[in-house]
Design brief:
By secondary structure, the chain is α/β, with parallel strands linked by helices. The protein is 25% helix and 26% strand.
């Protein structure tokens, strides 16, 4: 499913993603500035969290509390190799019942489970965004 949207439609897009997800692992693929973190902020809000959401670029993972349970937000952009994710205990995070929202998942491709939802984000020339739900 492909959807073109503007930032004022973010709430509805986040709701569709949550409804579309077959599991609690969502991968966000897109270039720098495509809106991955902005979309994740809205998804975390829709899942019932009032926590401040920010990109875990340096810590690799942020944890948020919500009425839907724990939410883990990963950003693997700065990861040098999959071993770093393995060393931080990524496999334990994946096996938890929490939501896992993962930016730059291509950096840990071999550590990802088969059951996941993939979101591709693109910035369009007119300032809007295109999202592809896989």
């Amino acid at each position: 499913m492909e959807i073109n949207f503007s930032l004022d439609q973010l709430e509805g897009i986040a709701t569709k993603i949550i409804e579309h997800s077959q599991n609690k692992i969502i991968l966000f693929i897109g270039e720098m500035g495509a809106g991955k973190t902005t979309l994740i902020k809205e998804i975390v809000k829709q899942l019932g969290s009032e926590d401040r959401v920010s990109s875990p670029t340096f810590s690799l993972v942020n944890e948020y509390n919500s009425s839907s349970g724990l939410i883990y937000h990963f950003d693997f952009h700065r990861l040098e190799n999959e071993e770093e994710a393995y060393d931080m205990g990524f496999e334990e995070y994946v096996s938890s019942p929490a939501w896992k929202l993962i930016e730059w998942p291509q950096k840990i491709e071999h550590l990802l489970p088969k059951n996941k939802t993939i979101i591709k984000l693109e910035s369009l020339a007119n300032g809007s965004r295109k999202i592809t739900l896989l």
